[in-house]
Amino acid sequence: MQVNFKALGATLLISGTMLGAGMLALPLVSAGMGFGYACLTLFLIWALMTYTGLMLLEVCLSFPEGSGFDVIAKTLFGPKGLYVINASLLLLLYALSSAYISGGGSTYESNLHHYLGVSLPPKLVSLGFTTLIGLIVFLSTTAVDKVNRLLFSLNILIFLALSFTIQPYVSASNLAEGEDSAKYMMAAIPMFLTAFGFHGSVPSMVKYLGHDKPRLLRNVFVAGSLIPMAVYLLWVFNTLGALPRFGDHSFQAISAHNGSVGMFLDEFHALVQSPQVPTLLSAFSSIALFTSYLCVSLGLFDAMASTLKRGDDTRQRLQTALVTYLPPLIFALFFPKGFVMALGAAAIFLTILAILFPVSALIKLRGQDDYRPSYRVSGGGALHWAIAGSGVVIILFQILVMQGRLPVF
Q1: What are the residues whose beta carbons fall under 8 Å from the beta carbon of 63, sequence distance 6 or more?
Q2: Which of 114, 126, 332, 337 could, after both became Cys, cross-link 258 (CB 3.0–4.6 A)?
Q3: Is pLDDT of 2 > 70?
Q4: Cβ-based neighbour number of residue 24 at 10 Å
Q5: pLDDT tens across 381-403, in order?
Q6: Residue 136 per-residue DSSP state
Q7: What are the C-alpha distances in Å from 162 to residues 34, 112, 115, 156, 183?
Q8: What is the distance of C-alpha 149 from the center of its chain?
Q9: Three-state secondary structure call for residue 310
């Protein structure tokens, strides 16, 4: 059987879009509900996000090749729709950037302390981390591509090694369900959403694989989302199983530090005597944060350059860099432990882009008398309205979390 290497590459690209620093938050928000509820939540969010991705595929195939969110939003919903989509995209990228700077500051500060014996203020570490990322993006997209490919490939190997070495420390008692699991599940749903956000790549994949290959595109999106699903299940199993829910070194102690990624690493250092597990976990977390922020900030840099109509000369790229990196850096300096909080805010904007926008666009298209799609995702009517309702509920869950009315362990 002949292998379609282009489709395989597209599948891995979709997977790579989802696999990143967002998975560091999964155990932090799963601890309160236990492994069983975490598996159920992962499956529900995977099914929802994969289906809305296929809805978006139908929408994209109904427009000329190369049409992005902006063209679709303006055509279907006018200038106001275009404004909502552009604003949601920029706010999503800013929120993710803030999360990664916050997580990077605490992670690299912890690593410097444990492995080099160097104690630096987290704010200084955040500044250095942001400056390094900004320098790579400022240089060129080619520089970003080369650094990302090298580090992402290395991190896959580290994750496999980590999964193997952490097994002896997994305890079945740590995986049991906790009290009020349903409430913890509701609080975790928006955060889990950020781990399956591949929708921004749908228009690019349609252009890459071809407008005339709807079945191949469908298979790529389904397969591409299944790989992160398997990785997340293994990741949550290992981390929840190895670290107790309560005690001196536990998820409870991490929660007392506002879900800091650095504290997450510190607890593993204190609890697991074998040096391999904490070292591999630190390496994996460090690279995941670096590559995730590198890719997200490149997208934000390009979006801001387009919005502000900045060119590629040194002066204008510097101006773009300032508006790309200063706002999230300021947030991280004032909220150095805001990793989970910023990811939660990102979940609101991702819900708009990945759930409410696809379902609204598809309902609008299917309401047209002359609509004849080349690809039609199964379901419609009541199902689509139910999905729209789920998007509203997810935003409500996140608002309740931000108000402290739903527990995040």
Answers
A1: 71, 72, 75
A2: 337
A3: no
A4: 28
A5: 899 999 999 999 999 999 999 88
A6: H
A7: 21, 20, 18, 10, 31
A8: 18
A9: coil
